[in-house]
Specification:
This protein is α/β, with parallel strands linked by helices and about 575 residues long. It contains ten helices and 27 strands. The protein has helices spanning about 1-15, 45, 90-100, 120-135, 165-175, 200-205, 230-240, 265-280, 290-295, 300-310; strands at about 30-35, 55-65, 70, 105-110, 115, 150-155, 185, 210-215, 245-255, 285-290, 315, 320-325, 380-385, 390-395, 395-400, 405-410, 415-420, 430, 445-450, 465-475, 480-490, 495-500, 510, 515-520, 525, 540-545, 560-565. The strands form six sheets. The chain has an eight-stranded parallel barrel, surrounded by five helices.
Length: about 575
Amino acid sequence: MRLLTSLLAVFAATAGSSAAFDVSCNSNYASYYGQNSARNQQSLGEYCKDATEDLIVLAFMNGFPNIILNFANACETTFEGSTLLHCPNIASDIKYCQSKGKAVILSMGGASGAYGFSGDSDAIAFADTAWNMFFKGKSDKRPFDDAVLDGIDLDIEGGSGAGYPAFINQLRSHYASDPSKKYYFAAAPQCPYPDSYLGTTLNSAWFDMVYVQFYNNFCGLNAYPTWFNFADWDNWAKTKSLNKDVKVYIGAPGSPSAASSGYVDGATLTSIYNDVRSKYSSLGGIMTWDVSQARTSGIAKSIRAALDAGGTCKHDGGGSTTSSTSTSTSTTASTTTTSSSTSTPPYSTTSISTSTTSTSEPTSTTPASCPVSGAPCSGNQQGCNGQKFAICAGGSWYTGSCAPGTYCYMGGNTAMCDWSNGRPTDTCAVSGGASLSKRLDFNKVSLITRPNLRPKPMSAKSNRPTRVEFVAGDITDNKYSTVVKIQTNKNAFTGDWSFSFTLPEGQTVESTSRGAASINNNAVTIKSDPSSEDANNMAAIFKIVGTFKGTYALPETNSAVFSST
């Protein structure tokens, strides 16, 4: 009976299989899954029933080398006696998606988490662990059981860059031990080139795909064509990448609420895709954050139609692809200029980025003042002046405005637009010169437990560590906003919860975007409204708004207490 069952399973998988994911196409659609961004996330298998996406990125492994996995409502169970997620439902869905011709890879990193390597030896050891737990190796605890992933994505948004090339090289050696299957490496850098965290790794390790996040930055889709810098990434693919056939994707928000800036509607995204496809042979397709947002807004359908209409590989409706003649032509990105807007400065699009091959750092010619349009500068400098970013071209500054609500900050030698997160909003800085305003880090993180509950076995839902994070928002005059992020790394909590903490001296709370707030002296309690909450939650994110006196400060996380029925 066991043999018969196995043979039937193999037959069913083969009969329902479609053509495999083809990384060489310029019409692939990748989307992230696992964080329930739209709060209506379906099972992974539901999204694989049709031909919309070609590749799914599971998000996230947000802790390594001490592994922490988080897939929101998609997986809430752990191995007995362990905090490691065990996801048999996702495991079955991975195999189903693969039978439909889709690739499924795991993303390491994310916007928040405890991750990074101490050095090459640490990274090499973890590559062996990853192979054993998620690929063809063997481990007593495999989160996806016998399902074998198609690759790894690096979405590194914090920490140091140590060890990542060594990690990739070691895992590639494992990939090579299994010629029966194609495995991939992907990365998700921010659009400013070079990326602050992945720049060195991108130049020194093998990547098959790069999902450039063209949002939350000055070079986002909303800045097309003036500051949109796909040309920089095409140039990187052809001149810097170890893999000269690497594919670069247009990363887009799946809806207006999926990012702080950068969202464009389906028609606009189609137009941008067609323009990029006609110019740059490195194009691989489109990526969205995330699948729940893109499916809910409807832009996923528009993306699929655009990719099928003009790309090199077309879908037959069931997940398989057929090749067609490519209409893209290779260009020399380093000499591409933008001419479709009369306001576009007269310089090469690649001059937006600081050169990584320069033997010396340029020195600001005006170190005592903010970069101003038309003022002198030197080399490939970039700079910030409050809400304006500045690019040096032809010896003069050209300036542009960040998206509403965001401000310019320097990340190394790269100017980036970002939320203030408690930092000064009048930053004056240039690459190669000292910042004239000190950058402040207002991000405090700690682990809290639920002390109001008695200790119970590890498998009990009522006894698990909960991570809380306070992140500063906009600070204007004596008004502040603070984002509160509560996340469990084990079982879900119910919609009936409360969260209390001690408010810094001189602060008040006027409102909360989730639940209701009550204050007793400086003790604050946020009580949820169960009628507007999901029955099961892996995270609660909301904003409190109030006033402060003197110097703004974040609440101390060691005062935080979370409880749920």
